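We close this part of the discussion by returning to an individual protein. In the encoding step, the backbone of a single protein was reduced to a row of integers, each denoting a local shape. The sequence in question and its structure tokens are set out directly beneath this paragraph.
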Amino acid sequence: MAEMERLGNTREVDVLDPPVITKDMARRWVESYYNVYQFEGFRVPLDKSFVMSIPDLLEIPHVHLDSTSRIIYYNILLQGILLDSEYLPGRGKIIQHLYRSCMMLVDDWLCHIDNTLPDMFAAFVMLSMTLEGCNSEMAWKIFGYACDIARALGFFSVDEQSDGHDSQSELHSDSESEVEKNRKRFEFWHLLRMDCLFRLSFGKPALIPGGSWTVNFPDPTITGIDDASTRFIQIHFLASMRLTLTLLKYLDLVDAGMHQDTDVYDQVLDGLIAEVQTIMSDWNAEELVSAATNHVDTWFSVDILFSSYKMLIVFTQSKRCNQNSQFLPRHTVEVARKSLRIFQSLMNAELHAYWGISLILLHQFVPFFILCADIIGSHRYNELEDDFVLVSWLNDFVDKAAEERPELRPIAAIANAMAIACQQVQFPAS
């Protein structure tokens, strides 16, 4: 813990020699983003023409762009880089520069944040940014603002029936098109899923408690027009929301304080495990990953898969029969191993290597700890060579990422400590 605290206090921002981003490069990445990823359920609330003009506007001294617009712009550039297949020397430095540029705008943005769609969108992208930087407390703070904006804009009450007393609200609801309602529904369910992730991964209280919202599932096409290019996004939404509803049952079970020393508790968990397995089967989660042909579709596919694996591990280990066991169940270890192997194959691509720590933070540290615990507690040392290699790879991956990103050093310290513990089992001191 002392090492983590020391590393956390030495976070630095390399602004002395920022990489060069020419206007042509910026416009190409903006084009790439708008051409490849424009889903109706999660649209950028800024016109493309305005975003394309920002490289010029940033060079005009008397023009001031608000922090909201700049955060959205930098995020579009970052996503555009990840979508661009063209080789780019120094890609990692540019990505980190864009990340740091966003982080430097956060304080000013939060001081002026308002209940607007651009600020809502900025909150979504900064949630991703801060989690990628392992800054869970800032992410939690931003998530709170996102919920406040969503409530003010009616995202929590899209399908609420008027009691006749709020004629203005009813008029506003009637004037909204079904497409607009679907967009609100889509983004609300994204917020609800994030609420569950914060509760499960960081032990935070629910910001979206039951009874505080009335929102149906949207038509996954949003517009009613089924576009083949959004197939993976639609599948991700439907599968991840079913997983969210299952996770909600687990979190509510834990919060309710049901006695864990009863057979009923284990039976409920068995039911939740079966639900996750059914969802994985219904959507062919493992096959989706191999079927994806671009960065965005791959990310959607592995998110379903990693979420499912993590939930299977957590639910299984929560059972009374496993809490009292000296050894980890074989199927739990196998799920952890499978999750890490898929993550390894994904991160071996140079493109992804600069941007993926959030997947470790939200999904992969659970299987990583499971695999490490199995190695440390196992007496089958001659059978664990592949697991040693997998643990060492993840430790090296995080360590390499932390060389360019000081904010990742605390998480690298944890991974390194676990890897050392495993090495001591592999090569015990004589």
In short: The longest helix spans residues 231-256. The CA atoms of residues 63 and 267 lie 63 Å apart.
